[in-house]
Design a protein that fits this description.
There is one protein chain. By secondary structure, this protein is α+β, with helices and mostly antiparallel strands. It has 4 helices and 5 strands. A hairpin with a 2-residue loop joins strand 1 and strand 2. The chain has a single domain, classed as Double Stranded RNA Binding Domain, CATH 3.30.160. Helix content is 40%, strand content 18%. Strands 3-4-5 form a 3-stranded antiparallel β-sheet, with helices on one face. Strands 1-2 form a two-stranded antiparallel ribbon.
Length: 141
């Protein structure tokens, strides 16, 4: 079992992996060895998650979940397949734990009367300074 956060864990049997060659530079290792790992997790078919948890995951990770309901995570940063596999699982844990976090509710704040009074006094002073710098135009009739 993979622990995601408190009270939530996913069975390792629900994860499947596929391997292919990594893109980009790297010489012979990249050209010969399948080190890129893609982790597949079927959100809809998961037995470890409740219906409410599946809905949370679908909502928060909607851009990462394909039409067929499968979450795919790629990892190709490391040189070995095992290290990329670990990196993909760690990223999976991060994504799901972020999906289950409840955002803090915003507590509206009020401006103290002293700060409001100070702001208005500053505006009055500034307008007085600007008014004193103006030159009066005199029109000859």
């Amino acid at each position: 079992m993979i622990d995601i956060c408190s009270g939530v864990s996913v069975s390792e049997h629900e994860l499947s992996f596929s391997f292919e060659r990594s893109p980009g530079p790297g010489g012979q290792n990249v050209n010969k060895v399948n080190t890129r790992v893609t982790l597949h997790f079927n959100v809809g078919g998961s037995m470890s998650l409740s219906t409410a948890q599946k809905a949370l995951v679908r909502k928060s990770l909607s851009s990462r979940i394909a039409q067929d309901g499968i979450l795919r995570i790629h990892s190709s940063k490391e040189r070995t397949q095992l290290a990329n596999r670990r990196a993909a699982v760690n990223r999976f844990i991060e994504l799901l734990s972020e999906a289950f976090k409840v955002p803090k509710t915003r507590k509206p704040t009020t401006i103290p009367p002293s700060a409001q009074r100070k702001r208005l006094d500053e505006k009055v002073k500034r307008s007085t300074v600007k008014r004193s710098r103006q030159t009066e135009l005199v029109y000859d009739d």
